Amino acid sequence: MRADEVxxxxxxxxxxxxxxxxxxxxxxxxxxxxxxxxDEAGRLVGVITEGDLLVRxxxxxxxxxxxxxxxxxxxxxxxxxxxxxxxxxxEEVMTRTPIxxxxxxxLDEVVETMIDQRVKRLxxxxxxxxxxxxxxxxxxxxxxxxFAEAPAAPVEIGDAELVAExxxxxAGHGWAPSTSLDIRAVAGEVELWGSILDERQREAIRxxxxxxxxxxxxxxxxxxxxxxxxxxxxxxxxRGT
Length: 241
Known about the structure:
The chain is an alpha+beta fold and 241 residues long. The protein has helices spanning 3-6, 20-30, 67-73, 76-86, 90-93, 107-117, 136-148, 159-170, 199-210; strands at residues 8-9, 34-38, 44-49, 121-126, 129-135, 181-186, 189-196, 217-220, 223-225, 232-233.
C-alpha cells in the first residue's frame, strides 16, 4: 500500500494567522492531535500539534531555565521558549519544518517514520501543496479493511506438504532455530519438537505456523534450554506430565 491509498484527503487545516485559541478549539472539536498549517496558496508551511501547546504560560507549564544556561548558550533559546509559551498566533508556535511524505511513499516507510519520529500523523505533500494527511487512525482503518475481507476457503493439503510449508515459513528468520526444531504433521495437526534458547522464540514460532494455510492445530512440545545455566524448561502443555 501507498500513502495516497490510506490517507485522509482534504484534511482540516488552519492558517498561520489564526489564533492559538482557534487552533485548540478546532483540534478538540475534530478530535485530532494536530493540524496542518496552510497558507493562502495552499502550501504547507508547518503543523501545530498537542506537543506545541503543552508548554503555555496560561497553564503555568512554561519552561524555567537556570540563568547560567542562558549565559552559557546565549539569549536565543530562552527567547524561543518565551514565544512558544506566550505566542498568540499559530505561526508563532507551530512546528515550521514538519516531517512529510509523498503520495507514493510506501505504507511501510510511513509507519517506520511515525515510529522513529514519534509522531501520530504525517502531512502528504505533492510539490509544495498539501494533498492529504495520513494518521495512525488511517493505518488502523486500512488494517481493519484487510481483516474485513472474506476469509479464504480452508486449505486441505497432505501432511508431508504441510511440513514443507511450515519449514518454508520459518526459513530466513534469524530467531527461528534451523537445526534444533523437528516438525511433524498428522491430519493437519502440526507437532513442534526440539529446543529453543529463548522463551520468546516459542510464541514467534507458533505465530508463524498459525499463518500457514492448512494448519488446523498446533501441539507444542518444544523445550527451552537456558544457555547460561543449562536449565531445561518443558513446553507449558508438557509440564507436570
